[in-house]
Amino acid sequence: MEAASPASPPSWAQGLDLSNSELHHLLVGTNSTTQVLIPTILREPDEALGKLRTLYELRTPLGTNTGLWDLMNALVAAISDRDIIGQEGEKEGAAAMMSIMYNRSTFDLLAQVVLSDELFKDWPGWTRCVLKLLTRFIRLPEIMGRLKLDQHVESFLQNTATSSAGVSLSQLVSSLLDQAWTHRQILVHDDVVTWQSQHVPAAPDEIRSELLLLLGSAIDLDQLKSIRNRNFTQLAFLCWFHEHDRYAEHADQLLFALNRFAVTAYTDNDGQNNPTLETFFRHHVHTYYPPLSVCKRIRETFLRAKVLNEDTGALCVILTYFISDRQENVGYILESSLLQAMSACAQLPLQEGKSGPDSSSVHVGYFFALRGCLRGIMGVMICALKDFSFSRGAEVIIKECNVPLLLSWIYRLAAFYHDTPGPDIETHHYALYVTNAFAEMAHSSEMEGKDNPLRRRFVQALKPEWYPVLKLLRRNTTTLVRELYIHKAWERLGKAMGLVEDVERKQYEPRASKLCSLVICRHFTILPPNGLRTCAGCGEVRYHSKQCQTEDWKFGGHKAQCKRMK
Q: Is residue 423, in this structure, part of any structural domain at all?
């Protein structure tokens, strides 16, 4: 028998007499037949569920089953988010969702579909629906909480979310991930012309997007921790890498979550644990993904960030794994302007969060977010300065980053947080290397002369930072600052760039009263856009914000100095 060519229709398309437009509507569940079925399912969900099982049992395996597909499309649409959030007029959807989801026969059918090993070989619209339905099961405890049905959650997890054959939700997801990785070629577009690529070109994006949402939903559930295996990591990265449009922000969250748990290696008992990020990048990302494209995608993620939080900072640290043992990857980071995007993130507004009684939102934010951000930036910088010529390394860094501000922040964090210094010791060594490197470059031919544009650019950024930070470091007695001679290195950098201490002091003193008193605030060295708030106790110390005042009161020593406490 003659083998089918790639452009021949698959078995599930045999006999389909639909235009490309009609196939697309069938794929995403917006075809007319599906729309007609939705009201019926909302009115009679149990009957619809029974009919779905009957159609599945009578199906032609991997064949054309349009009746089954239409009903599955309608069932998934009937219990979609917009119908179960409990808003007025949507109670019917909530009732249908509970009737369908809180029914073991639904989970039995879902388990049968997934364990058949046919899912990723079938009609893409069917695959999309199964992924969507499984995601609903993963999220059902959250949904039930929204509907004030929390008392049913434990019962659901113990009973409904386990098939009659004893297959748990976690096991089902794990099996699905194994299949998804085996058939990962259907998740991306390639250059091979197939019947599907010609007639259903949106299929990879639709399936991948639903898989992305499933992975994101599965991350934080305790009962699903066992699925955090190699396939989970690899699929999460694949979905993030290829998702550019409607679910790009979901993809970013998945990457953040991937980073949160992938750094812990081999913690599960089954030996299927994630490798460390360094191993993952060396043996997987470097093998399967073009490095310049990875850098561009990470840059897009940074540019979408609106606030600086722990996840954004941790993403900077990922770059230190990406460049490990591969000098050329530093070049890709510079070529894609990724370092510039990383540096811009350090100046994003801080995301404030809840904190303990002995901490504050500012403290928690700076300790984790800025720490990670600065560590990643310094890791890239030090590689660029060590391994590249001036024109490819230092010159690009000066043009794309505010190097003095970044160094200033690292040193200020070290001076301010005595017991829990911001960046770790490795970051301080990186910062000292960068500081000393630029001090030496000040005398090089590439930066000689006051009119040298690169020198002027660097000095302009250094001037507002140098004297106030030098003054701070000199009076600081923390072990970290003293043992590493940070104050000496910072003083040497300023002098090498032609700054004169008396001149800088006289320029600083008139504007000192207009700056925030909190050492780690951005406006400790740069004038704030609005006026300052004065401490009600002493009437002398000024702050950029209430959060800055709280932070200085708890960690900066102002509580002991304020007049109202005496």
A: no
Average pLDDT score over residue span 527-531: 86
Which alpha helices (DSSP H) does 102-168 contain, by range? 104-115, 124-146, 153-155
Q: How far is CA 525 from CA 130, 317, 402, 490, in A?
A: 55, 26, 13, 15
> Rounded to whole angstroms, how far apart are CA atoms 553 and 559?
5
38 and 181 fall within a common domain: yes
b/e 54-90 (16+ beta carbons within 10 angstroms → b): ebbeebeebebbbebbbbbbbbbbbbeeebbeeeeee
Which tokens go with 40?
A: 């019926």
Instruction: Give mean pLDDT, residues 227-254.
Output: 82
Rounded to two decimals, what is the model's pTM? 0.81
Identify whether 60 is part of a domain.
Answer: yes
The most confident of the ranges 161-170, 208-217, 232-241, 493-502 is: 493-502
* Same domain, residue pair 33 and 161: yes
320 lies in some domain: yes
**pLDDT of residue 60 exceeding 90:** yes
Same domain, 170 and 263: no
223 and 242 co-located in one domain: no
d(CA 123, CA 14): 11
Q: Could you give the CA distance from residue 104 to residue 433 in angstroms, rounded to a whole number? A: 62
Assess contact for 555 and 519: CB atoms under 8 A. Answer: no
Are the CB atoms for 305 and 343 separated by under 8 Å? no
Same domain, 218 and 266: no
If asked whether residues 208 and 238 sit together in one domain, one would say: no
Q: Which of 282, 386, 249, 401 is nearest to 337 (CA)?
A: 401
What is the reported pLDDT for 340? 94
CB of 77 within 8 A of CB of 64? no
**Range(s) of the domain holding residue 534:** 515-566
Number of DSSP helices (H) and strands (E) in the chain, helices first = 30, 2
Looking at 207, 227, 247, the residue that finishes a domain is: 227
Q: Is the pLDDT of residue 23 over 90?
A: yes
Domain count across the chain: 3
